[in-house]
Sequence to fold (980 residues):
Amino acid sequence: MVRNGPKRGGAMTALVGRNTALERIEHELDEIQDGSSRAIEIVGEPGIGKTRLLSELTARSELRRYLILPGSASELERELPFSVFVDALDEYVESRGTESLSTLDGDVQAELAHVFPALAALAADRPVSLLQHERYRSHRAVRALLEQLAQRSPLVLVLDDFHWADSASVELLGALLRRPPAAAVLVAIARRPQETRERFAAALTHAERASGLTRIELGPLSLDETRAMLGERVDAAGTAVLYQESGGNPFYLEQLARAVERTGAAVSPHPVSLSGLGVPAAVAASLSDELSLLTDGARLLLEGAAVAGDPFELDLAAAAAGASEAAAMDAVDELLEAGLVRSADMPRRFRFRHPLVRRAVYEATAGGWRLGAHDRCSEVLAERGASALARAHHVERSARQGDLAAVAVLRAAGEEASRLAPESAARWFQAALRLLPETAPTENRLDLLRARASALAAVGHFPEAHEALLEAVAILPQDAHALRTAVVTACAGAERFLGRYEQAHVRLVAALRELPLEPTVESVELRIELTLNEFYRSHYDAMHEWASRAVAEAKVLEDAPLTAAALVMPVFAYAMTGATERARLHREEAAALVDQLSDGELVARPDTPGWLAIAEVYLDLYAEADVHAARALALARASGGGDPLHRLYPVLPRIWYVRGKLAAAAELLDGAIEGGRLLGSPPALAGNLFNRSVVALAAGDLDLARDTAEESLELTSDLDEGFVAAWAGARLAAVLLETGQPERAAEVLLARAGGEELRLIPGSWKAYFLELLTRCWLALERPDEAERAARLAAATAAAAQLPLPNAWADRALAAVALHAGDADRAVELALASAAAARDVGAPIEKALSQTLAGRALGAVGQKDGAVAELRRAAATFDACGALRYRDNAERELGKLGRRPHRRTRAGKTDGAGIDALTVRELQLADLVVDRKTNTEIAAELFVSKKTVEAHLRNIFRKIGVSSRVELARAIERSNRAERV
Fold:
């Protein structure tokens, strides 16, 4: 099970001066024995001993019988996706066979097939999401693989030279640091401190703060430590000289000591061709002298190897050098004898003694010869049928300007990398653009610019993406209306990602004016985009004109998918302004056409059902919204198109929250947040963070609720005033109020959402946050402001004429009445609120209103009614996973002298009678007491009628009754008994 350590291998010199680092390594190796995941980051300058320390980590892991999987990055090959992890894991998972992964989920296996070449067979008939921002699915799949590999013994994943890692590997490690494997896994990386990517640095900081990462910084050795390292190889005077020249750097010391052993004295600095290495002159001179001792054949093969890669295949190195196989065999023996290269794990593969040696050899080659060597490597790889990605590195370094074949290879490499490694894809598209001849058709350059912009946007480089799109706009043919619209729309989209809604508006309007006056597909598309941009600007009234013109023009064109997209816009516009009846009327027409179209017809416009779902949320049509949002997400994943990160990810969890599906909402949002971090778009990440906050708050995870809301607020601080920033402030206000900070809650809510009328919150959901504002004012003992906010909520609800806004408004008014001492009025309003929430299928909202009703009933002395409402609320909260709200309801029960009526969890029925009922069964029994029919119970609990019937049979058996009437009587007797 155990593989050798860092692949540079070979005999190790004594390790001196690193006692503290070794103690910390021993501690981390101890820590993972209990099944926890840990990380070690070893940081230091070139040659300072990072690899040597990883070798010591490996040796100590071997003594413990841990599984060790080492890999390393290479300086000149930085763009092969996941190359560091492939180097570490691919050979091992291949040796285990694909059948060993059969216990992993099919989706996980499919993702792994696109990461590890050895698992490519697992991709058969298993589709994966084509969305670039869902590459977090690959990260989760690798996390699952590491967890499986660590089942038998702790796993130590050793990743050397991580400062050269490709972008996909960096993203993957960042994901593993943020959400470590749930297993005994130690990830150890070595890297230089310079050029740390911002997001990766944030992941390192996050892991260190969470005590999941140990950082070890290596500095130079002292003179005494230098003496201990060199031992008797160099006398005292020579040691002092070498220490002075090396600065205490172990690699430099070793290199200079080699020179002493060769010549009997330290090498004097002299001008050499290796000065660009950034190492001391004496070290460069020592390397130069060492290389000069090689025969011509060995030197030539070493130069070919430096071009071929590190590690390098002997055959490819020979091809780069232009050497025969026999000559290469003799040369590699000489190189092994000289200690310049070492055998790797696989046959006919070798590694350089140190990356600095490879860099020295590469830099010392003549420029013209190097071009030819890369070209020869590319040709050999092409003959082998290697992928464009495998060839791209060599093509980029050897191709001539205007070489269309090279452009094709680089473009293909970008397309291969685009889904899982968009940052690398952007690099290859840029390389293709550099080689593209000026005489090439404009369409070719436009395609590459758009592809580069898309790849850059996928990793959050929106300014660069914007620049690429502006360059594309500048070369667009005047009469290419379809192309111009597509590029301008993409450009405006990049501006929206940056929160520059005004700039996007100006751009779209200008593009529309350039079109012919008669209706065209392009004019409809631009009007749709303008409608959506008004939404982001929070100019909800302005949405109507753009939307109505889009519909009128689309119907003239008789393009069904385009018409469907246009028809959704008035629904959206009216929903945002609270014109419910008009919105519902337009929604019927839009939904009918959307539902009629096949997936094949809608795939070109996958966002259409998504926008319809968002509008339906504002119309209290949550079941319908659930269906349309799920379809939109499936279309986007199948096509790679659409914008689910900004649209579906925020709306689906809100639908599921209202419907009481907290676990599903949390799972989707966790992925959405990972996707948002990969994208780097403040609006996208902020939206998913503030939605995660509301789910965490209900579930009782206050730390997560606060952290996600605070981060969301910070992310939106630099955005233009609008919808996203308003919701971020409103969600944080909810957390602040719940944690006893009503003054700051009110301050944040008013500042971000547009004053006391919350003008930046669209549609009927304004009533939701006005109810929150009402509670803020009551907590601050400001009843006049509370009543004003509650009445504004009521006015919003009256205009919307929808159940859920009425529920929020009535709850706000009930809270004001209860605070004023009018408990009877509070009871009436709270029960009406609960009924309205029940009618729309919103169990958590219903239970919140029942909790308030219970408090009000207790205030008027109706203790039995209060207990019944509070117990029903607690049961509903418990069933939905809203544990904080459940605890609140149970505390109210405690004030009435009643113990919580918590039931045995499903699967544990060793109690007797009513005490043997599960939470779900108790909830169902309470609804029977309420004289609900099986059909009504099924609708309220979101289960089938057959499921209700099966639950009732179990309940009858446990309690010993045979009818609904007997069940109701048993529940009522139990409630009376508890009151005694």
